[in-house]
Amino acid sequence: MADFLGVGWTAPVQLMQTGQIAMAREEDAIRQAILMILATAKGERIMRPDFGCGIHDLVFAPNTPSTIGQLVSEVQDALIEWEPRIDVLDVDALPFPSDRTRIQIQINYRVRTTNNRFNLVYPFYLQ
């Protein structure tokens, strides 16, 4: 096992059948941490107001190349600042042709200690 990658409670917190809290391990712990960073708006956590990602400020922004660029920049900055276990390889944001309010954020990253590469797709809605 690669416990050096981290072990923590699952997000959202879940109980196993034994009554113990379910744990996220290894690369899954990193994936859940990335999702938590993206899902948390800056200022949302009282004791850590700088934690999170600035994409939530763009919820009512128009679907333009400028907004797409801001989304990519906010995701890259947040992951570089808050997830030291990864190298962000690429972030791209692609609008859905059939739904102008939905953007698919694609993140490619490498786990530093194992050199394993992963991708994650995060849906983002402008309205």
Question: Residue-averaged pLDDT, rounded?
Answer: 89
Under the CATH scheme, which class?
Alpha Beta
Largest sheet: 3 strands, antiparallel
Q: According to CATH, what is the topology? A: Nuclear Transport Factor 2, Chain: A
Poorly predicted regions are none
Report how far apart the termini are. Answer: 42 Å
**Helix/strand class:** alpha+beta
**Helix content range:** 25-40%
Q: Estimate the strand proportion.
A: 25-35%
Order of helices and strands: EEHHEEE
Biggest β-sheet: strands ordered side by side in the sheet: 3-4-5
CATH architecture: Roll
Count of spatially separate domains: 1
Number of helices: 2
Describe this structure in words.
The protein has 127 residues and is an alpha+beta fold. It has one domain (3-125): Nuclear Transport Factor 2, Chain: A (Roll). The protein has helices spanning 26-39, 65-82; strands at residues 7-9, 23-25, 86-96, 99-111, 117-125. The chain has a 3-stranded antiparallel β-sheet with strand order 3-4-5, with helices on one face. The chain has a two-stranded antiparallel sheet with strand order 1-2. A hairpin with a 5-residue loop joins strand 4 (99-111) and strand 5 (117-125). The longest helix is centred in the middle third of the chain and has 18 residues, at 65-82. The radius of gyration is 16 Å and the shape is globular. The protein starts with 6 loop residues before the first strand and ends with a strand.
